[in-house]
Amino acid sequence: MASNKHEEIAQAAIRLFEKKGYHATSVQDIADEVGLQKGSLYHYISSKEDLLMQITHQAINGFNRNLEKIMNLQLPVREKFILAFESHLNSLTSNMSMAIVLLREAFSLGEHQHSVIQQATDQYLDLWCRILDEGLASGEFHHTNSRLTALSILGSLNWVYRWYDSNKRLSPNELAREFANIFLRGIERR
Amino acid sequence: MASNKHEEIAQAAIRLFEKKGYHATSVQDIADEVGLQKGSLYHYISSKEDLLMQITHQAINGFNRNLEKIMNLQLPVREKFILAFESHLNSLTSNMSMAIVLLREAFSLGEHQHSVIQQATDQYLDLWCRILDEGLASGEFHHTNSRLTALSILGSLNWVYRWYDSNKRLSPNELAREFANIFLRGIERR
Amino acid sequence: MASNKHEEIAQAAIRLFEKKGYHATSVQDIADEVGLQKGSLYHYISSKEDLLMQITHQAINGFNRNLEKIMNLQLPVREKFILAFESHLNSLTSNMSMAIVLLREAFSLGEHQHSVIQQATDQYLDLWCRILDEGLASGEFHHTNSRLTALSILGSLNWVYRWYDSNKRLSPNELAREFANIFLRGIERR
Amino acid sequence: MASNKHEEIAQAAIRLFEKKGYHATSVQDIADEVGLQKGSLYHYISSKEDLLMQITHQAINGFNRNLEKIMNLQLPVREKFILAFESHLNSLTSNMSMAIVLLREAFSLGEHQHSVIQQATDQYLDLWCRILDEGLASGEFHHTNSRLTALSILGSLNWVYRWYDSNKRLSPNELAREFANIFLRGIERR
DNA sequence: TATGAATGAGTCTTCATTCAT
DNA sequence: GATGAATGAAGACTCATTCAT
Fold first, then answer.
1. Is the pLDDT score of B2 beyond 60?
2. Are D148 and D172 in a shared domain?
C-alpha cells in the first residue's frame, strides 16, 4: 500500500498532467503542489515518467477490473451491454482527470512503458468484443464485425472526456443509456 | 501563398509531431528534417507554436470544408449521412499524420490559439448536428438528442486514428459504411 | 578502536571507491553495500570525505610502518633494498583496493587533508632515500641523486596497480625481485 | 581542424581538470573560464565526458606519435632508448596539464571510451617493449622480461607528474638522461 | 536567404547531510 | 543505534529564440 505522501503526489500529478499536460508540467510544479522540495519528491517516485506510468496503469486497470466484473455476471447480454456503458462512463467521470491522463498522455511514455499500457488497453477491447460475441451467439445481436463495432463504441465513450461537463444536466448513467441505446438499436436483431 | 520551403517545413513538422509528439520534437529536429539550420527556420515560421497552429488550423479547416460541400448537396439525408462518414474518414486517412496532430496535439497550443481551433471544431460538430436535424425534420430519423448523437459519432470517427492500419483490408470508404450502418440503424425510423 | 560496523563501512567504501572512484560512489552506494540506511551511516562516519581520509591515512601508514621495520633491521643494504621492494609490493597487493584508493583518489581530498597524506607520502620517500644513502655510505652503491632514484623506484612500484593481475603467474615477491634486480644493477657498484 | 573556440574550451578544460579533477570541475566552471554561457558550450562539445575523451585521446596519441618517430630512426638501440626517455618526458612536461589529465582522469571515462584509451596505452607499452627486444636481439641488452622492464620504466616516467617541478633545476632532458642511465645500467650487457 | 554563435531560462535528477522519531 | 523524510544546492544538459554577418 502506497504511503499517504505517495498518493498525494500521484493525485497532484494527475491534476497537473490533466490541466497542463505531461510535458508542460515540471517536477517543480508537482513539488510545489505538494509542498515539498523538488528533490524530496524523489523519495517517492523514481522519475517523472514513472509517475505517469503508475497513473496510466492504475487508470486502465480500473477500466479493466470494472468491465470484468460485469462480464462475470449472470445476466442477459442486453443488460450486460448497458452495464458496460455505465461502467465505462462511471470509471471515466468518477476520476475524470485520471482518465484524461490515460487517454491523452499515455503516448508520452517511453516505448516500453507505452506498450504495457497498450496491452492492457487491448485487453479492454477484447472484453468488449466478448460481449458482442456473446450477443451474437445468443442470437440477440445480428452479425457484425465485433471488433469494428467495439472500436466504434470505445471511440464514442472515450471521446466523452473532450466535451463532458459534469455540471451539466446529464449524469454518467443517463449518458450511458443514451449511448447504449444508439448502439443497441444498431446491432440488435429486430 | 506559402513558399515551397514553408510547405516543406510544415510537412516535416507534421511528420515529426505525429511520430514524437509536439513537445518531444525540437526545432532542431525539424531543421534537420528539412536540411536547414535551426536559425534559418525562423525566416519561414514565427515560432514552433505558430507552426503547430497552422497545421491544426489547416487540418480542421479541411474537415469543415469537406463536410460543408456535402451539406450543400441536394440529396436524401440518408445519403448525406453516409457521405459525411466517408468524407470524415477520407480526410482523416488521406493525411493521417496531420489529422493526428490535430486530434492529439492541439491541446498543446496556448489558450488563445487553442480556443480558435476549438471554435472551428465546434462548427464541425454543428454541421453534424444539422444533418441529424435534417433527418429528424424529414421524418427519416427518429427523435434523438442530436448533439449527443453527433458527439457519439465523432468519437467513433476520431478514435479511428488510434487503431486504423492503412495496410489492412479495410478501405476508408468501407470503414465509413460499416460505421454509418451502425449509426443509421441506431437512429433511423423503422 | 573502531567498532565492527565502522570497519565494515570502511571496507565497503574501499571496495566501491576502487571500483567506481570516489566521486562516482554515492553515500547511498556505501549504505546499500553495508545494508544500512544512508542516514544511519552518519553514526559511524562524519562525512564521506572523512571516510576517504581514514582509508588513505591507514593505507599510507601501512606502507610507512612496514618500511620502517625493514630500516631497523641489521642487514646489508643490498638485502634491505630487496626487502623494501618486497615490502612495498606486499603492502600493495595484499590490500590492492586500499592501495588503489590511496594512489588514485587521495587527490580528491580537500587541501588540508590532502596535505596530511602528502606529508606521510614524503616521509615514505625519505625512508627510501635513506636506504639509498646507506648504500652510498657503505660503498655498495655508486653515487646517484638518491631522491631521483627513489622517485624512479617508487614510480615503478606504484604503477604496478595499473597492470598487476593477481591471477597471473607472478607473485608479489617474484615481481619485487625482478624490479629490485633492475634497479640494483642500475645503482650497484661494479 | 578544430575552431578556435573549440580549442579554447579544450584548453580551459585541461587546466581545470588538472587543477580540480574531472568530477570536481563543472561545466559551469569551464564556461566561466571561456567566458561563455553554460548552454553555449554545447555548440562545441557534445558532453563533458566527450571533452575528457578528446583530451585524453589527443594526449595519448601525442605520446604514441613521438615514440613511433623514434622507433623509425636508424640508430643504435642505446640511443633510441635514451631518446625514448627524452621523448616521454618532453611530451609530459611540455603539456603537463594534458598529461596529468590523461594519467589521472582517464579512469573517469565510461567503460567504452576508457577502453579506447586503454588500447592506445597498450600500444605505447608495445613500442617500449620493441625497443627492449631490439636491444636484446642485437646483444646490447641482456635477457629480461621486456614487458616487465617496460612497465617498470613507464611507472618511473609516469610518476614524474606527481613530483616534477618545472621551476626546478632539472630540465626534462636532464631528468630523462638520469632515468635512462639507471635503467641502462640495469639492462645493458657488461 | 542562410548561417551558426550565443543566450538564458528551464529540464530532470542526484546527492551529502541533517534531524525528529 | 537506526530510520527515512526532508533539504537545498548543484549537477549536466536542452531548447526556442535572436541576431550579426
1. no
2. yes
Strand partners, B141: B188
Residue C188 is predicted with a pLDDT of 75
Structural domain for A27, as ranges? 1-45
Q: Which residue gives the smallest C-alpha to C1' distance to E6?
A: D40
Could you say which residues of chain A have pLDDT below 70? 1-3
Instruction: Indicate yes or no: CB of A182 within 8 angstroms of CB of B187.
Output: yes
Chain A contact probe: residue of B177, B182, B187 with most A CBs at under 10 A: B182
Q: Do C186 and D190 touch (CB under 8 A)?
A: no
* pLDDT at A159 (0 to 100): 98
Decide if pLDDT at D1 tops 50. no
Strand partners, A141: A188
Q: How far is the CA of A132 from the C1' of E17 (A)?
A: 61
Identity of residue B68: E
pLDDT at position C5 is 93
Q: Give the model confidence (pLDDT) of A140-174 as tens digits.
A: 998 889 999 999 999 999 999 999 997 788 999 99
Do B70 and B24 belong together in one domain? no
Note whether A40 and A61 are same-domain residues. Answer: no
D26: chain C residues, CB-CB within 8 Å: none
Please name every residue paired with C188 in a beta bridge, in sequence order, or none if there are none: C141
Rounded distance between C-alpha atoms, residue A64 and residue A62, angstroms: 5
pLDDT (0 to 100) of residue A179: 96
Which residues of chain C register pLDDT less than 70? 1-2, 190
Query: In terms of domains, do D40 and D122 share one?
Result: no
Residue A146 belongs to domain with CATH number: 1.10.357.10
Clarify whether residues B142 and B76 are in a common domain.
yes
| Chain F positions with a protein C-beta closer than 7 Å | 1-20
- pLDDT of B30 higher than 60: yes
Asked whether residue C49, judged by its CB, lies under 7 Å from any atom of the DNA or RNA strand E, the reply is yes
Cβ(B45)–Cβ(B36) under 8 Å? no
Q: Reduced to 3 states, what is the DSSP secondary structure of residue B21?
A: coil
Which of C23, C149, C159 is the closest to D158 by Cβ? C159
CATH of the domain at D18: 1.10.10.60
Distance CA C165, CA D157 (A): 21
- Positions 39-68 in C, CB within 7 angstroms of strand F: 39-40, 42-44
Is strand E in 7 Å reach of the CB of D23? no
Verify that C87 and C52 share a domain, yes or no: yes
For chain B, the domain total comes to 2
Q: Are both D39 and D52 inside the same structural domain?
A: no
For cell 600493495, the residue is C92
Q: Do D186 and C185 lie within an 8 Å CB cutoff?
A: yes
Whether C77 and C131 map to the same domain: the answer is: yes
Task: Kindly state the average pLDDT of the residues B125-141.
Answer: 95
> Which residues, 6 or more positions from B176, have their beta carbon under 8 angstroms from its beta carbon?
B82, B85, B86, B88, B89, B90
